[in-house]
């Protein structure tokens, strides 16, 4: 499995921004895609954004216009830029690769995002 390392979370005020990172060795060489998920306390995990090696991206309606996903293929890293953060964005954020068998990954430890004044 591809090991995943998420980072970049923290405490931010409403309206603020954060950029999350997910480093996944083999992401580029194995031609994987990457999804970002989040899970708020007491709620199911939800998919919020994804990117393919070809650069195709999807963003959930709940974060469209505020969140953007991008990839640094040279460094096997995918970013989630989060702007105009709201208290309801508070959650643990996870990344996960997808694609062929070589793109199989488990769940990382995640990175906590807390939006509060």
Describe this entry's structure for a reader.
By secondary structure, the protein is mainly beta. The protein has strands spanning 5-7, 10-12, 18-23, 33-39, 46-51, 57-59, 67-72, 77-82, 91-98, 111-115. The strands form 2 sheets. A 6-stranded mixed β-sheet has the order 2-10-9-4-5-6, with no helix packed on it.
What is the compact description of this entry?
The protein is mainly β. The chain contains no helices and ten strands.
Strand content: over 45%
* Strand neighbour order, sheet with most strands: 2-10-9-4-5-6
Shape: globular
The portion of residues assigned to helices is under 10%
Query: Structural class of the helix and strand makeup?
Result: mainly beta
Most strands sheet: 6 strands, mixed
Sequence of secondary-structure elements: EEEEEEEEEE
The span between the termini is 39 Å
Radius of gyration: 13 Å
- How many individual helices? 0
Total DSSP E strands: 10
- Oligomeric state as shown: single chain
Mean of the pLDDT scores? 95
Q: Identify low-pLDDT runs.
A: none
